[in-house]
Amino acid sequence: MRRWRWVRLVIVAGVLTGAVGTLGQVLVGTLELEAEWTEAGPEGSSLDHPMGIAVSMSGRVMVADGASRIVVYDADGTPIDQWALPEGTRPVGLAERLDGTILVTDYTGDRLLLLDRDGKLLEVWGGRGTGAGQFQAPSGVAVTPTGNVIVVEFMGQRVQELDSEGNFIRFIDGGDSARRYAQNRPPVRGMEETKMSMMATPGDPHDLFVFPSDAAVGPDDTLYVSNTHAYEILVFESDRTLREGWGRKGAEAGEWEVPVGLATDAEGNLFVADSANFRVQGLDPSGQVFLVSRAAERWYRSTRRIYSPADIDVDSEGRLYVADFAASRVQRFARGS
Fold first, then answer.
1. Residues 181, 186, 188, CA angle at the centre, nearest 5°?
2. Which member of 89, 95, 150, 300 has the greatest number of CB atoms within 10 A?
3. Cα–Cα distance between 244 and 247 in angstroms, integer?
């Protein structure tokens, strides 16, 4: 049985100071929770801790979950297909190319799967390793306006850019500006210990990335990376030099507690699944917060233990789709005023 809930949530709205980017006063907007669903198909099949979500150009909603599959829905949550992936695959990141090819990061298989529009496996890129074009626990994937592919490696702690054929272009390290940024970045308690407890991978000479999760690319080719355990969003120019970092560890607007999934819209706004803060935030291209999706405190207390947004995407109408890992569900929001 599909579980639906139709309700308007009035999000924290008002004037905030000290937002990310240029400090100033920001009016925080609202969201409407239009629908949510957990059903994955016939015979009572349900979603299993979804980690990734992507809305295709045709409006289909594709969800990567823990059952080694992609579940495909229409925009209203009716399951229309399931794509079984190779046994043992742990799909996390999802993206669609202009030709309709679907890109899927296999976190445990250290590879990138390419599927056709019907879910048939076309190609496999990568494989475990530290070399160019190899991956260690790839988690995020994004496509640039020119068709290049961005792959974020959570355990490899680096970001690669490949061309449309899968050929290596570069490790994105941010250049000299990233070196200066990393040297001057305020320390976060436990960050260095966490990084040093795992094996870092060559390709990140400036020590910029600390277990990054996802990437999104704006219409002007600005690249955003959720640098999850440094509690920040990194912003790169089209030449992949680092422009700036947004936010810090915390629970105020423009602060993060394990930021993971990212998405951009046609206007270049960025949406962030701020998972351990149990919310979604929206930022304009300058880094100003315009949306914080935590609702009234009573609602927050009652749902936070089962609300863990892992990924997010935006459809052509500006509606937000959120994969809720902890509650094994998808939620669709409309943006209010």
1. 125
2. 150
3. 10
